[in-house]
Design brief:
Tetracycline Repressor, domain 2; 197 residues; 11 helices; mainly alpha; 72% helix
């Protein structure tokens, strides 16, 4: 039983790495199997099809990311203001996406490539994540704001989810990128007036 769970975990980890790097359409089961240290037919012992495997990677990524963000925000205690809670969530999300968790980055990379029926199931699992962001944004929004909270949430999450596709370590760390993302959303692009190229 333990050996079977270990094999399944190796397949999921390998699939997440390949999906994160190549996207769904370019991912081959043979590459996933090679990364898991097994032959491609062995995958079918654990997963009925490539679609079932991909969907499990998506669900793992959403669960891991949501759990991480909530733990970071709620772990800071009840004394945080609504804006501080939203900042903590933005920072936690970006740091997690830029971490070594391939499943979360795979979600951001391949979601648009998913077949419609799978996309619907993944979106249903995404509801906790989406509702958490909705509540954070609504709580932090100024009373007289004319910004629609759904539009704000969609743009914020899309902006944050893009980070793994372009970020390369170097001049700025993942933590610095996370803080800049929070500043951009919470303070605005032209607030400071000092743009660093």
């Amino acid at each position: 039983m333990e050996k079977e769970a270990s094999g399944k975990r190796r397949i999921l980890d390998s699939a997440a790495r390949v999906l994160r790097t190549k996207g769904l359409n370019a991912t081959k089961l043979s590459e996933i199997a090679e990364g898991a240290g097994m032959l491609a037919p062995s995958i079918y012992h654990h997963f009925k099809s490539k679609d079932v495997l991909v969907e499990q990677v998506m669900l793992d990524g959403i669960y891991n990311n949501t759990r991480h963000i909530m733990a970071k925000v709620e772990g800071r205690g009840a004394k945080l203001s609504a804006v501080e809670r939203l900042r903590a969530a933005i920072v936690a999300h970006v740091e997690f996406l830029l971490s070594d968790d391939d499943s979360s980055a795979a979600v951001a990379r391949v979601f648009d490539e998913l077949p419609d029926d799978m996309k619907d199931r993944v979106l249903a699992a995404y509801a906790t994540f989406d509702n958490y962001w909705r509540d954070l944004i609504l709580a932090a929004a100024p009373e007289n704001s004319n910004i629609n909270s759904t539009v704000a949430r969609k743009f914020l999450v899309a902006m944050l989810d893009s980070a793994p596709s372009w970020y390369r370590s170097g001049r700025l760390s993942g933590a610095q990128i996370a803080q800049q993302a929070a500043d951009l959303f919470l303070l605005g692009f032209l607030q400071d007036g000092d743009i660093d190229g």
